[in-house]
Amino acid sequence: MDVVITHGRKIVSDEVRALTEEKVRHIGEHCPGLDRAEVHFSEEHNPRISDREYCEVVMSGHGRTLRARAAGQEPLIAVDLVVEKLEHQVERAKGRIVGRSQPRHRVAAPGMLYRKVRTA
Fold first, then answer.
1. CA within 20 to 30 Å of 101's CA: 26, 71, 75, 118, which one?
2. What are the structural domain ranges in the chain?
């Protein structure tokens, strides 16, 4: 997976970059169709807002686009929140893909519902 990390005015440390890239790649392993991720860090300039650090991730590939944005007091907190949101979206997207590829379940005949099971 190709991970591109950008930032606004504030420079993101190498530690935050490495952890973010690792977490985003881990999400990409769960859904192999996603091949590109863009991570953007920004900061809110209003001093009255306590969660000032924003992290936005856009993952795309094979006609799917997943996007999540979260705010936290520190960049790593924002990354953790975004990862949770993306994991939920990946589960839903993967469920839709697998649901389409599986054959439809057949309805059992009325007599088959109450069939006795032998026990030894």
1. 26
2. 2-112
